[in-house]
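Deliverable D4.2, example record:
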Amino acid sequence: MTESDTKTCWLCARPLGLKVEWHHPVPKSRGGREVVPLHPICHRTIHASFTNAELARMPAAARALLEKEEIRRFVRWVASKPPDFHAPTARRK
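Output generated by the structure prediction step:
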């Protein structure tokens, strides 16, 4: 991963703010080692929307998550927010 890779969020592609979280596209519990930078709200949305088992069955690419309507809706909503924007994240029912 290069320095330029850490300037934008892996999921929403917005510039990162002061707080950055690191996500394993392939869950660590499933042997994943690679990490990607995310906004905290984007990270929480991924884990509120998918279990580790579901993430393990998906390709390890943001586009795979963006194929899901729930994630596409979230990314459209958050697109106009500042990098350090925070809001409560609802868990999947």
